[in-house]
Write a structure and sequence with these properties.
With about 110 residues, the chain is mainly α. The protein has one domain. About 50% of the residues lie in helices and about 0% in strands.
Length: about 110
């Protein structure tokens, strides 16, 4: 679907990803589409619930573990106060993703 094409290009901005996410069917945040946004999680501070679910669902063991460590660190240390619950959820999901590796990887200390 051409509306979701921005999810698959590295040159896509967050606003374009946000607009494209509106066209995704519920629960369609893995595989092809999930891979399209996984590298953009580092800059995410989404406020929209559907978009946040898309970002959170893309944080998994298909990512480079070093990137997941960075996401976890940023969620704990660089979170705006207004998004503290969302950042806590991102940190929790990052830890879960690291635990999914074989062998499991421990989160780095801040």
């Amino acid at each position: 679907m051409k509306e979701t094409a921005p999810l698959m290009t590295m040159a896509t901005s967050w606003p374009a990803i946000f607009r494209a996410a509106a066209f995704l069917p519920a629960g369609c945040n893995d595989g092809y589409f999930g891979e399209g946004i996984s590298d953009r999680i580092l800059a995410a501070h989404p406020k929209d619930d559907k978009f946040f679910s898309l970002v959170l669902g893309s944080l998994n063991a298909t990512l480079d573990p070093d990137d997941i460590q960075i996401v976890n660190t940023l969620a704990r240390k660089s979170c705006p106060a207004t998004l503290s619950k969302r950042c806590a959820a991102i940190s929790k999901r990052a830890k879960e993703a690291l635990a999914d590796y074989e062998p499991p990887i421990s989160p780095r200390a801040p």
